[in-house]
């Protein structure tokens, strides 16, 4: 490979970037856990079409750098033209609404590992070559191998008068009402998220049919802040088992992963439920507001949800609007007294906002649905 041009990314990341680079530049390549592609693809091949560093234009990480890459599928032939992708990987400290932080250095190590896989080499990468390497890879369009996988979707059966939630051969819980089951398992009945795992560089034999492959996917745009990353199944299940037994390090590790995925861990009673939500691609935007403060029947829940939604004006909230909001307490139930919050970001597509607690001046609530905003804007 030709000598890579120096870039401005090093200057943007500064001394913390150089320190993280020195710490992780000699790390061995790791294969870790994108998506119209189905689960179950093994040994798929694709050509890199996008590889870049860029800056978040909006959201909590606005102004910070991120890395992402995508590739056009060559095989299996029936999915040729679709995309597989990795990232976006934030290149900054990230913090959950609960205050748990994933250090910049950890995100950096993940990014560097992906670059090494794409290069097909564990040779040292210079800190000020990162942007140039990404540009070279995009121009070169190397082949990569990938696989896809997903958990069984969660389903509900009625047995002996109880509503039983299952995932594959596992029974996750038995409930008196359908509403209670849905509250405990917000991803119940949803199709499990397909995880993409890039396995490194490969040579793709070109033939006549390969020449005709077109990009049938949507062009990559700036990533949403809540884009869910892919996870390693065994790692998450192992951490959840330890966390449910009180292991502090496992709890901290899972909390950090929740922050990366934009998932509110406080919305779940057990860490195994948190792990399943991560693997299913649930974000705070999907889970916020699912837990209510009491054990009403499903009909009562419907009434409450309607009243919550009617408490907000029809017009979309705007940045700097002031509302009252009841966050989840330590007991996983919503507090009785609403706190005054300021809107700092709005996602109209998912009908969610990011709120800043004005009473303590620091707590951030991500993925809050419009229907949970109380009172008229002040």
- Tally of discrete structural domains: 4
Number of H/I helices: 10
Query: What is the strand arrangement across the widest sheet?
Result: 3-2-1-6-10
Helix content range:
25-40%
The main sheet comes to:
5 strands, antiparallel
Distance between the termini: 59 Å
Whole-number average pLDDT? 76
| Overall 3D form | globular
Question: Which segments are poorly predicted (pLDDT under 50) over 5 or more consecutive residues?
Answer: 31-35, 224-228, 282-314
Strand tally is 14
Structural class: alpha+beta
Strand content: 15-25%
Helices and strands, in N-to-C order?
A: HEEEEEHHEEEEHEHHHHHHEEEE
The Cα radius of gyration reads 22 Å
Task: Kindly list the characteristics that best describe this protein.
378 residues, alpha+beta, 4 domains, four-stranded antiparallel sheet, 10 helices, 25% strand
Description of the structure:
With 378 residues, this protein is α+β, with helices and mostly antiparallel strands. The protein folds into 4 domains: 9-149 and 194-211, no CATH class; 152-191, no CATH class; 239-286, no CATH class; 315-372, SH3 type barrels. Helix content is 28%, strand content 25%. It has a 5-stranded antiparallel β-sheet with strand order 3-2-1-6-10, with helices on both faces. Strands 11-12-13-14 form a 4-stranded antiparallel β-sheet. A 3-stranded antiparallel β-sheet has the order 7-8-9. Helix 6 (233-244) runs antiparallel to helix 8.
């Amino acid at each position: 490979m030709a000598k890579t041009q120096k870039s401005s990314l090093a200057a943007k990341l500064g001394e913390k970037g150089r320190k993280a680079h020195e710490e992780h530049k000699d790390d061995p390549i790791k294969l870790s856990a994108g998506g119209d592609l189905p689960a179950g693809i093994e040994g798929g091949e694709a050509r890199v079409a996008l590889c870049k560093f860029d800056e978040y234009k909006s959201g909590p990480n606005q102004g910070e750098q991120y890395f992402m890459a995508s590739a056009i599928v060559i095989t299996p032939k029936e999915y040729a033209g679709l995309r597989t992708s990795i990232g976006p990987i934030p290149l900054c400290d990230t913090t959950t609404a609960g205050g748990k932080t994933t250090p910049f250095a950890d995100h950096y190590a993940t990014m560097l590992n992906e670059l090494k896989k794409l290069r097909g080499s564990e040779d040292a990468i210079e800190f000020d070559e990162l942007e140039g390497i990404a540009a070279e890879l995009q121009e070169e369009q190397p082949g990569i191998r990938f696989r896809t996988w997903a958990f069984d979707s969660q389903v509900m059966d009625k047995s002996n008068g109880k509503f039983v939630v299952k995932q594959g051969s596992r029974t996750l819980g038995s409930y008196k009402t359908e509403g209670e089951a849905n509250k405990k398992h917000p991803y119940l009945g949803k199709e499990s998220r397909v995880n993409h795992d890039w396995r490194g560089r490969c040579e793709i034999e070109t033939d006549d049919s390969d020449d005709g492959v077109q990009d049938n996917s949507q062009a990559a745009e700036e990533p949403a802040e809540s884009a869910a990353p892919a996870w390693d199944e065994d790692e998450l299940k192992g951490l959840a088992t330890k966390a449910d037994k009180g292991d502090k390090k496992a709890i901290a590790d899972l909390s950090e992963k929740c922050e990366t995925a934009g998932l509110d861990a406080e919305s779940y009673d057990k860490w195994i439920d948190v792990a399943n939500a991560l693997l299913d691609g649930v974000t705070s935007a999907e889970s916020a507001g699912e837990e209510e403060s009491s054990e009403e029947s499903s009909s009562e829940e419907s009434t409450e949800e309607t009243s919550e939604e009617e408490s907000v004006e029809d017009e979309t909230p705007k940045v700097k609007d002031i509302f009252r909001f009841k966050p989840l307490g330590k007991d996983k139930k919503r507090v009785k007294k609403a706190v005054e919050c300021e809107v700092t970001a709005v996602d109209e597509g998912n009908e969610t906002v990011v709120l800043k607690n004005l009473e303590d001046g620091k707590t951030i609530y991500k993925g809050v649905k419009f229907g949970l905003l109380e009172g008229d804007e002040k």
